[in-house]
Amino acid sequence: xxxxxxxxxxxxxxxxxxxxxxxxxxxxxxxxxxxxxxxxxxxxxxxxxxxxxxxxxxxxxxxxxxxxxxxxxxxxxxxxxxxxxxxxxxxxxxxxxxxxxxxxxxxxxxxxxxxxxxxxxxxxxxxxxxxxxxxxxxxxxxxxxxxxxxxxxxxxxxxxxxxxxxxxxxxxxxxxxxxxxxxxxxxxxxxxxxxxxxxxxxxxxxxxxxxxxxxxxxxxxxxxxxxxxxxxxxxxxxxxxxxxxxxxxxxxxxxxxxxxxxxxxxxxxxxxxxxxxxxxxxxxxxxxxxxxxxxxxxxxxxxxxxxxxxxxxxxxxxxxxxxxxxxxxxxxxxxxxxxxxxxxxxxxxxxxxxxxxxxxxxxxx
Length: 365
Known about the structure:
Mean pLDDT is about 90; it is low at about 350-355. A hairpin with a 5-residue loop joins strand 13 and strand 14. The chain has 10 helices and 15 strands. The longest helix has 17 residues, at about 40-55. It folds into 2 domains: about 40-260, Alanine racemase (TIM Barrel), CATH 3.20.20; about 285-360, Beta Barrel (Lyase, Ornithine Decarboxylase, Chain A, domain 1), CATH 2.40.37.20. The protein has an 8-stranded parallel sheet with strand order 2-9-8-7-6-5-4-3. With about 375 residues, it is an alpha/beta fold.
């Protein structure tokens, strides 16, 4: 392992992973803003709802930690019956493994010697580490770095429409399958298919049609496996946007749901099967901001901008003032647009003689 990889890994796994317990809990009003505020009771209920829903349909859930990047939450998901945890990056997997998560799938291909070396370093005897592969170059990089006494599960990443990562060519699929079977350090664990561009399609029926069609287009790959006498142990993919759609698919073994634990305004604007709003999960994560200025009667400036929210694809919504429009005003500021005839905040001007109000926003994820 190179010095650079060792330094990077040590920097990641050297951080504490356990929560810091306070002698006295803080109220939201005491938090320095902007601050993420997590309602643990709601999050726990969301986790249980997803676990029970998928179990009822005979599917596992393999939640994606990119939503929270928190080993404490990952443990709660495992305790609720998750078959494993997904991470997007090797560094995230290293943190999860160090915190005691024993089954981790890295959902992005590892294709460089440095990343492959880092994977080798975090492998342990009691760790199930699964990697996706979509190129001979990526597999060759892994084969050059994994020690002879270690074992890694390989999932072939399949793509039919998203165009981000994944295999489309049948010949490449068979070459990779042969390469995995030809090396004792690796074993074929299954396949992954993720269609992220489908997750936020607003109309339920359209989202359902596109998700089912994307899986149907993988039929040739499953036929190739059948011809080889292989029945994959893992067929994983999907996400929060299709959690109630993909459960009808026979080949699917588990779903990589992520955003369901927190929910956000972007998902809440996606229709359910019988509602114009997303159903089944409640908002657990909000962003607390403080009103810091009122430069004119028609606007209020808060201390939350691009850096305080996970995404600018959908504007945050202020719970206390849902009828007011929010717009980003830079990295550190946001602006609430008031009706022009309203005199100040809620009919009052913001007075510097009293504390400015604390506002809670629903972000997007």
